[in-house]
Task: structure prediction
Amino acid sequence: MATFQLIKLPYAADALAPVISAETIGFHHGKHLAGYVNNLNNLLPGSGLEDKSLVEIIATSEGAIFNNAGQILNHNLYFEALKPPTENNVPTGNIAKAIDGQFGSFENFKKEFSQKAATLFGSGWAWLSSDKTGKLLITQEPNAATTIGKGLKPLLTFDVWEHAYYLDYQNRRADYIAGLWSIINWNVVEIRYNA
Ligand code: MN
Result:
């Protein structure tokens, strides 16, 4: 039977400061994500989905199982594409070419993505995904939804649930979003895009 594990972060808890504090990482990774992992592991026995991968579970489930499986995948994609802050943090390679080709410039892309993340009502995720032709799409997905259900490949996501930013930014979601651009690991995003 599959037992899902909490991912280890590829950086120290305080490595994303001041954009995301160690306290937020402690709750977000250590409590929220750990909670989704525990919930899913408790829900799977007897569900008929015991031997499925996370993506298979997301594609074939609903309700509590879907919500917890989706939240695990979404958080793994989010946390694994972050890194310590740097100035002038921009994409390179194929993903940079695709962004420039489709949005005109990285600045235009940032503006559109930030606006989608800022205006998502309630809890959810802003996503950059690619379709089978390599075309990029920016979407808002509510609650635990990913873009896998739309037949897309998820590349980059901003978690805009309040638990992702409230300790550091309270109601200032736009400030959290602005900060995220300096801690995106574009190498990881490009590997996903090229895969
Ligand atoms: Mn979250």
Q: What stands out?
A: The chain has a mean pLDDT of 96.
